[in-house]
Here is the input.
Amino acid sequence: MDNSKIINISGLVKQFPMGNNNFTALHNINLAFIKGEFCGVVGPSGSGKTTLLNIIGLLDNPTSGNADVLGHNANDLSVKEAAMIRRKHMGFIFQTFNLLPVYTVFENIEFPLLLLKMSKNERDKAVMDALEWVGLTDKVKSKPAQLSGGECQRVAIARAMVKRPDLVLADEPTANLDAENSHNILQTMEKLNRELQTTFLFATHDEKVIQYLRRKITLDDGTVAGDITTSK
Amino acid sequence: MIAIKLAIRNLLGAGLRTWLSVIVLSITFILILLIHGFLEGWNRQAMHDMKEWEIGGGQYWHTEYDPHDPFTLEDSHRDIPSLFMGQANKGNYCPVLISQATIYPQGRMRSIIMKGIDPDQELLELPTSLLKGDFEEIPVIIGTAMARATKLAKGDITTLRWRDVNGTFDAAEIVVAGIFKTNVPTVDASQIWMSIVTMQELVSMNNEGTLIVISPEITNPHPVPGWEFKDTDSLLSAIISTIKTKTIGSSFIYIVFLALGLLAVFDTQVLSIFRRQKEIGTYVALGMTRKQVVGIFTVEGAMHSILAVLLGALWGIPLLAWLSKTGFGMPLSADEFGLAMAERIYPAYGIGLIMITLLLIVITTTIVSYLPSRRISKMNPTEAIRGKIQ
Here is the structure.
């Protein structure tokens, strides 16, 4: 694998059983992503964006073809090995935030660090840093139900970034946010991308997100219809 | 450790849903202790009373004697061995002669068991000293059940008819010298007690006995030809097996409660797994293995039992302690029930009972928590993250 490439996809096909037949969600996808990219897979609903993100996130396996993620072939990984890679090297941001409702903001952000068995002091410092990145130091003890949508998504970003992962996968991160909050969130993520050199990969069809992307991969009906890099 | 930490956070965060299950389980926990404590208390009381009133430290029986077959009484008597006789042995051995007889209280004929015992004995609680008074008639003592059944009162005189060793009928007047109250119906129902010497004369069985009660201080009873030694365990086997039967019967009550408690936990788990599938998907996305997620949910369910034990201890310990002091008033008296039973039974709770009950609750709760949690390992995380699993 080329050292700068953190994701290398070749001949990727993903099919789902549908009745007696198979539905092909992704056809022969060939893509590579390098460290520090701020890119997105764009396209209409049903084009296969989330499916591609799930495979890159090692939450799903390709039907055929290869997906090398962070130096590991997705086909060769056991469920446990995939979990370990996600735990150490990946962060996820979801459309519906997926915060743990009974935990406070602090505990939600601390969660990935608990899995990494970090010491309490290290955890406290990392969580406070992450809260500063997203500007939520005053909400440490709040529960998700007490936060606005924008604040919830900022907590989700902090949770994804707290362990300083190599790769952050964001599936429609602004779909539940208004325009102002969407811009705030994206500016935060862009800033973190520049400061920490974390690779961000979005799945989105939101124009607000698309305008921030430096690389846009267009998926149409499961095939790559375009791959444009812009300099920003 | 992380599973326990997360489980506690989730459990306490779930609020009322958690506490409803915990309350039902804590009631079950205390109920099991209460039922078993009651039966154990009854067991201890019954065994204590039977030893005090009837069996002492064991009995030598004439080899023909069978208390459940009155026809054996005719032949189950023989000379009392010298080992059991004499002033030196008075505190250690107490011979009893048993025979059938008939009394006629208020002119009604009633078959009874006539028992002869040394009025000076101190081995048993029977108030035999009452037999030593100066009476024109033959003094006897009877229990309250016998008194009620025959309508005899202290000082009443009635006719006693018996057959001697040769089968010859004879009769005499007896006087009720005393009425004793006992929790042991087998020394009361249909029985009269008189001096063994008097009885030996009546039935022409001089120096003979049917059984010999021994002192609990005699730890190693010798074999005696013609007599079969029965230890306390065999003499108490009837009450032990009855209480065991009661224990099994009463188990159904708490099994129902336990099932209700476990159903509540099972239901909570199933509902949790369905409602919290996004959370499950998130755990997996954040890098937990499915096994760890199953662990969190299982520990979460099992923690219900720990909280139930803590809650049960909070309200149950004062209740159980109070009941062990005040006891349960029994609606039936021993003579009506037919088994040794005191008017009040004081529950007894052993550490073994508490530990077994605790383990029972924790293990069963863990199992019913694990069963629905297994479903997590079959969940597709990509569907779970979006909460799309039906």
